[in-house]
Amino acid sequence: MAKEYNVAIMGATGAVGEVMLSILEERKFPVKGITLLASERSIGKEKVYKGKKLKVELLTRDSFKGVDIVLASAGASISKEFVKDILAANALIIDNSSAFRMDKEVPLVVPEINPEDCRLHKGIIANPNCTTIIAIVPMKPIHDAAKIKRMVVSSYQAASGAGAKGMAELEQQARDWAANKPLKVEKFAYQLLWNVIPHKDVFMENGYTKEEMKVVNETRKIMHAPEMQIASTCIRVPVLRAHSESIMIETEKKLSVDEVKKLLSKAPGVTLEDDPANKKYPMPLFASGKDNVFVGRIREDISCPGNGLNLWVSGDQIRKGAALNAVQIAEIVLKENLK
Ligand code: NAP
Q1: Long-range contact list for 147-150, CB < 8 A, 24+ apart?
Q2: Domains in the chain and their CATH numbers?
Q3: Whose CA is nearest to atom 16 of ligand 1?
């Protein structure tokens, strides 16, 4: 019989944790047992896995005994607090937070791009930021064919990127607006309904936000391209789920629009949706709940003729931007016997 593994989901009641549980089931991950961990707010809550009810338990230092793989999704401070206990229990942690992403000892992996980096792990593998993953899955085949020299990413990020509470806040604002009630603002800096907010994460000294610099630094690390020139502007929009991004790239070698379409039509994890005359282009409404990153509106950048291209992508950042990417990493670990 094939080997099975004990898996713990840390942050099992969150936007990402919930989807992780369903993805483990969908992809028939070889699970022996599942431990669902969250805060005291969630003790006793129930989730369903393969038709069976599982109770959520309190995350403690003793939660990891006998666990093989921890899918961590309870935020960076919790990952930092519990990583020693996870490693002491000889479990592998695949971490969704920003806690270890830029640590030189920790591989940062997108399975379609750098699966081989999993082999370098010392107990921790980091899952990249969701905006970064959605942007770069379609960039990899272009980079391999023509070397991307420069990339400018402008994001249109869904409320669910701020977790279950972010999604709930936008839904509540819509209900309150329809009922002519005052709108509550807690999770975002301003009312998100009928608005866009150019402020995701904290502002840094260089005027960029931390989220924007994650796109820059993580892309370079994952693509093994420290010299790539990257800038990013990250915007929150009143979309419930799935991030979209406008991406401008400048390549070393010239590629025609048709060549790019051909490359992307067979790229893993990518769906080419590019027929504007028939109103076919990626949109977050339709990317929600899907595994692939959708790419379209591919055209020459007329401000950079010859070597410039503009593209538009949409992808479900809870699935490919977090939960699915983490489970794919776990699959590589098992396939290559890295645990
Ligand atoms: P979320 O919906 O707010 O869920 C947070 C989870 O962490 C909940 O299960 C929560 O449990 C648990 N938690 C919080 N404090 C805890 C504590 N002190 N002890 C134990 N458990 C605790 O957040 P999310 O969106 O799922 O994000 C989770 C992580 O994934 C974050 O690091 C985030 O940056 C990252 N991420 C999120 C996305 C996204 O699109 N949402 C994408 C990529 C990466 P309770 O329910 O008991 O509070």
Answers
A1: 147/251, 147/252, 147/253, 148/225, 148/228, 148/249, 148/250, 148/251, 148/252, 149/228, 149/229, 149/250, 149/251, 149/252, 149/307, 150/228, 150/229, 150/230, 150/249, 150/250
A2: 5-128+322-335 (3.40.50.720), 133-317 (3.30.360.10)
A3: 39
